[in-house]
Design goal:
Layout (H helix, E strand, L loop, with lengths): L6 E3 L8 H16 L4 H7 L8 E5 L7 H4 L8 E5 L3 H11 L5 E4 L2 E2 L4 E9 L11 E2 L15 E10 L1 H11 L5 E6 L5 H6 L2 H7 L2 E5 L2 H4 L6 H10 L3 E5 L6 E3 L8 E5 L13
Parallel strand pairs: 1-8, 2-3, 2-9, 3-4, 5-8, 9-10
Antiparallel strand pairs: 6-7, 6-8, 10-13, 11-12, 11-13
Helix pairs in contact: 1-4
Length: 274
């Protein structure tokens, strides 16, 4: 079976099946009532100033956004980016009660247009929406996951971070981006490339997933993200979730999430350094 023969249209799946409905309920419960990412969000909130803006790029079901919305006692704005309809509808339910959260139903990349999105499908026909990703079909042998080798394909809108922030700043002249979280299943280098002006101007702290396995579908590497941020003056750290200590580091496959800080930026509360 060729890699591309494992790609089917998302429209061919029954996303209202009993199995998927139970999965949707579980996804909602986990996002709404569990707080797996509460500790890391509390550490990252040190970088959010009153009146500041947080960008949750790859917001999924809102597990980060619901925490960011409470930073500075709610005196901040959270912009969520989530292009996949399944995730978008759950995200609305999870963060809809927070008046300082807005959702933009678009993916971010280095150009404006549309992109094919690939969602792993398990043998049970349930989708794995948290592993949805963009991809170049020349690399289709890397699509999917170890337990969901088939993928469903759909089309999503694309925009650039620089375009979004330019429009937001026109409507809100005092806008300042304090913190950016990026978890887009390997497309992080594209997000950074399309947001270079924003990152250079605002110098936000960046919490970014770097997973070499995720970049394969696009023919990219984690070092594409690291080098692009380094070119903007960013330095790379690990974050101790328990103590808040930050430690200069280099990439290692053993760690998935890294904190990037520009030396000219200052957190609202200083972070202890290891």
């Amino acid at each position: 079976m060729s890699p591309t023969s494992r790609i089917t249209p998302l429209s061919s799946l029954n996303l209202h099946s009993l199995s998927q409905s139970f999965a949707r309920l579980d996804h909602y419960f986990q996002a709404r009532f569990r707080n797996r990412f509460g500790p890391v969000c509390r550490q990252l909130a040190r970088f959010i100033h009153p009146g500041g803006t947080v960008l949750d790029i790859g917001a999924n079901h809102g597990k980060f956004a619901k925490n960011f919305a409470q930073a500075c006692d709610g005196n901040c704005t959270v912009l969520c980016f989530e292009p996949l309809e399944y995730n978008y509808t759950l995200l609305e339910r999870v963060v809809g009660r927070h008046k300082n959260v807005r959702i933009l139903r678009t993916a971010l990349a280095d150009h404006v247009g549309t992109a094919d999105f690939y969602i792993p499908v398990r043998p049970s026909k349930r989708i794995s929406p948290g592993a949805a990703h963009m991809g170049d079909e020349k690399n289709a042998d890397t699509f999917g996951t170890s337990t969901a080798r088939t993928v469903a394909k759909t089309t999503v809108p694309l925009d650039t971070l620089d375009n979004i922030i330019e429009r937001e700043a026109a409507a809100h002249p005092a806008l300042h981006v304090d913190l950016v979280k990026i978890d887009v299943q390997g497309a992080e280098p594209l997000v950074i490339a399309g947001g270079s002006k924003t990152l250079a101007a605002h110098k936000p702290a960046i919490w970014c997933e770097l997973c070499q396995g995720s970049t394969g579908p696009l023919g990219l590497t984690v070092h594409d993200s690291i080098s692009r941020l380094a070119a903007l003056g960013y330095e790379m750290f690990t974050l101790n979730i328990a103590t808040g200590a930050i430690t200069p580091t280099e990439f290692t496959p053993a760690i998935r999430d890294y904190l990037f800080i520009h030396p000219n930026a200052r957190p609202r509360q200083p972070a202890p350094t290891a």
